[in-house]
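For anyone still unconvinced, we reproduce a single protein record, the chain in one-letter code, the fold tokenised, and leave readers to judge:
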Amino acid sequence: MSARRIFSFLVICAMLGWIGQGKAQMQQQKLPARVYNTAKQKLKEGKPLVGATVFSPDPNIYCAMANAGYDFLWIEMQHSPLTYEDVAKMIWACRGASAMPFIRVPDATESDIQKATDIGALGIIVPTVDTLEKAQAAVKWSKYPPEGRRSQGNGQYGSLWGSDYRQTANDNMVVVIMIETPIGVENAEKIASVPGIDVVFAASTDLGNFSGHHQGDKEYEALVTRIHDVTLQHGLRLGGPQAWKDRPGFTFFQGPGETQLIRDGAQLNLLSKPAQSGTAPAVAPIEGAKPN
């Protein structure tokens, strides 16, 4: 066989290989993403979500809350002394829990969000978003390329969410940005237009803190209405405190922390009625047994 024929044969083989690779890539791109973040799935379906707030580093408390029926846990790292080491142990201790781990990071920095995602958080909550640039940073550091600039390194995320984590992470990550100030409200249109944001959260306490107005005041309610209208116009989910569950348009809620839950549970326990006379005596729980 002449050198020209050999060269032509090699070119044809290479072209066929490229075509085959291209078809394989197209087929791979067409495959639906594997969704394991049940909270994100509910968001897509427009269903309401509630997450209890975690301040304690105790894995036992975390697991009790994570398996209590909440959709996600709001792990509080802005207003608590929790460390990323604490939270990594908590998430790992309760892997497989029904509530998805969401972390409110201190700020929209690469360092904070990188650590949060590497230890397995499937939701990133960013506080005090006043500008377009901060909203963009929230997405930028939460998502792998091409949607963001998240670095691929070591972490327990793979052991938690599967060996295909790099291919599925972007589709399972929830980005929540909090508007807490009049400046943020003023820039709500720009903030809500950032691709990759899932939820805009109207921060009830700090809207009052920064504006000087109280819930129910005309000026305060105007801020909430502005966030409400802009968020829904952009097709995003609207978040707020659980006390606002009856406000129209709100579907993503921050529930109480563990101290309030323990207090409420204790009061419910103390108010429970004893067995009526003439009925079979109640059976005490067995120490060490799993709760019902």
Notes: Strands lie at 49-54, 72-76, 100-104, 123-126, 174-179, 199-202, 237-241, 250-257. DSSP finds 13 helices and eight strands in the chain. The first helix runs from residue 3 to 30.
